[in-house]
Specification:
The complex is a heterodimer of chains A (310) and B (277). Chain A has 310 residues and is of the alpha/beta class. Chain A contains 12 helices and 14 strands. Chain A has 2 domains: 2-168, Rossmann fold (3-Layer(aba) Sandwich); 183-303, Rossmann fold (3-Layer(aba) Sandwich), CATH 3.40.50. In chain A, helix 3 (55-67) packs parallel to helix 5 (86-95) and helix 8 (199-212) packs across helix 12 (298-309). The chains are: A alpha/beta (310), B alpha/beta (277).
């Protein structure tokens, strides 16, 4: 079933929560339109701070608002938010331990043909190397709504990123969402797929194709990259013949390398493949075309799975 | 505290700054000496921040954006009983929280600084937050003049002006030197007052080593309703020690034992002059 874009769910959830809590403040860098926060601005003008195109200032102001008790969401395209203002994230948010939520919109390659300046395929890697910031990449509307609700009273720095395309419904409603705990969406003994964010949707479709040819998959939505849920990861790979990771991110420093590092250090040796973007001048195209090109379509994941468990 | 008491306090603080830098084997000597009179007046006359009210949002706030002059800040906070003199003597020792830039691990410090160009945006966020909370408290922040080359400072000033932050007091420690040399040679920032005023701010220029002038200017903010307050505090880097004044080399230099004793003697003479005045 097709639902809304995670971006819309984020904006709707935040508005709903902010109506009841005047301490919730959103800070934007000329990004209220891209962040679907235009309605928020009209309805709660005193709860939105606009700094113009100045991401470093945005992050510093978020820290200051938090320092006097506000519940702050800094919203800006993930590419600029996590590269232009990386030092502010490191010092003013993470090192200073301000419980600010930074929301990277239009993450991964969701800007499509706008090209590499606008893509954020580095954000998970750079923030993984910053002490004291949690990273969440929700896979669908349910996870997005839950992480925004959880963010309100979260006690430490949090980074959330997502894209802007409508999502399919992945959860049947009886899953619990907790920051730091992955969610098992499917159980199977042949293969484990560990995915994060919107690529979980593609992995989900791949699992359904694989089931038709009698390959049963375990699928984990690893929505929290940091802190990493080692328990669910090790559990999910304990009986399978191979492991595939999928992420809308560089293969350097993301979910896949984290999984590889855990396996190596636990002496677990299984056929293993990381799907993500290679270190090259990337192909141009829509988000869908770029993901397909780099082997992250359901069909390509199916082929890879067949080869890995042969 | 009278002006004469403040002047004597500045002498005492200067001695303590030199002591902890000499003892700790490192420190930003000259920059701490240039801004200590500003911190003296802030903490003894203006801020009313103490260990009892520190945990509350409802008070005035101070963010030291030029974090490297942390020895001046430690000295004043110690005098305000945030921690003991023994704690302060752990400066730069292994596993001490007293490091070369401010951290919130030290009682009395509000924000972690050190990388330049950060404190002003944080202060702007706090000033906006206090206004949203309908509180009449003020935010004071101290910037270095070399720090003004950071673009983020000017981003923050645009926002401060937009939000009419007359509860924000931006003080520039205008000592005219930075690690490489004179600010006007490294990257000229003059005419500074005109720059600030063109941003819509209300700017005053004073002798930043005069506790009398500092007290006068800091006692009456806002200068203009709905306008950000900026104070260009003209100071002397290394102020108070003849052989350190205006010398680039003292940016991050530790005195030898002989230099340390000479410096203490000079300060003692200044103290006697003030007492006899």
């Amino acid at each position: 079933m097709i639902e809304k874009a995670n971006l819309e769910v984020f904006a709707d959830t935040l508005l709903e929560l902010a109506r009841k809590d005047k301490d919730i403040i959103v800070v934007t860098s000329d990004s209220r339109g891209s962040g679907k926060l235009t309605n928020f601005g009209h309805e709660l003008p005193d709860q939105i701070i606009e700094v113009g195109i100045a991401e470093q200032n945005l992050v510093g102001i978020c820290a200051g608002l938090s320092a006097v008790g506000k519940k702050v969401f800094g919203v800006s395209p993930s590419s600029f938010l996590t590269a232009r203002s990386l030092e502010q994230i490191k010092n003013d948010i993470a090192y200073s331990d301000h419980p600010v939520t930074l929301v990277g919109i239009s993450a991964g390659v969701s800007y499509g043909q706008l090209g590499a300046t606008h893509h954020s395929i580095h954000d998970i890697a750079v923030l993984r190397a910053i002490n004291n910031i949690n990273i969440v990449v929700p896979a669908d509307n349910f996870e997005t709504k839950e992480v925004i609700k959880a963010a309100i009273n979260f006690k430490h720095p949090l980074f959330i990123r997502f894209g802007k395309k409508p999502m399919i419904k992945l959860h049947d409603g009886d899953h619990n969402f907790t920051i730091g705990s992955g969610i098992k969406l499917k159980s199977g003994k042949d293969l484990a797929i560990i995915a994060t964010g919107e690529t979980v949707q593609r992995a989900f479709k791949a699992c359904e194709l694989l089931k038709k040819i009698d390959i049963n998959c375990t699928l984990i939505s690893m929505h929290t990259i940091k802190p990493f849920d080692e328990e669910i990861f090790l559990n999910s790979i304990s009986k399978v013949k191979a492991v595939i990771t999928v992420e809308e991110h560089s293969v350097s420093g993301g979910l896949g390398e984290k999984c590889a590092s855990v396996m190596m250090q636990k002496n677990i040796h299984l056929p293993f493949k990381i799907l993500g973007f290679p270190d090259e001048y990337m192909v141009n195209g829509s988000q869908k075309d770029v993901l397909d090109h780099y082997n992250m379509s359901a069909e390509k994941i199916l082929e890879l799975a067949k080869n890995l468990i042969k | 505290m009278s002006i004469k008491d403040l002047e004597l306090k500045s002498i005492e603080y200067r001695k303590k700054i030199l002591e902890i830098i000499f003892n700790g084997g490192a420190g930003h000597t000259a920059g701490s000496l240039s801004c200590i009179d500003i911190l003296n007046v802030l903490y003894n006359k203006i801020l009313n921040i103490n260990p009892n009210n520190f945990s509350s949002y409802d008070r005035n706030h101070y963010i030291q954006s030029k974090g490297h002059s942390v020895e001046a800040l430690y000295t004043v906070l110690c005098d305000k009983n945030f921690f003991s003199k023994d704690d302060l003597l752990t400066l730069n020792k292994f596993n001490s929280h007293f490091i070369g830039h401010p951290t919130k691990k030290i009682p009395g410090i509000e924000h972690n600084t050190g990388a330049l160009g950060h404190g002003l945006s944080v202060a702007v966020g706090m000033a906006i937050g206090l206004k949203l909370n309908n509180k009449n408290f003020k935010i004071f922040t101290l910037l270095g003049d070399g720090e003004l080359s950071e673009g983020s400072i000017w981003e923050a000033l645009l926002s401060a002006n937009k939000y009419n932050l007359d509860n924000l007091v931006v003080i520039v420690d205008r000592n005219k030197l930075q690690i490489t040399g004179r600010t006007e040679e490294v990257n000229p920032i003059e005419p500074l007052k005109d720059k600030f005023n063109s941003f819509g701010l209300s700017t005053r220029e004073i002798d930043g080593n005069s506790v009398h002038e500092l007290n006068d200017v800091l006692s009456f903010t806002p200068f203009e309703k709905n306008k950000v307050n900026v104070i260009i505090a003209n100071t002397i880097k290394g102020k108070g020690i003849s052989f350190m004044e205006n010398q680039v080399v003292w940016h991050h230099k530790v005195p030898t034992e002989e230099q340390y004793n000479l410096a203490l003697n000079e300060l003692e003479k200044l103290k006697i002059n003030i007492e006899n005045d």
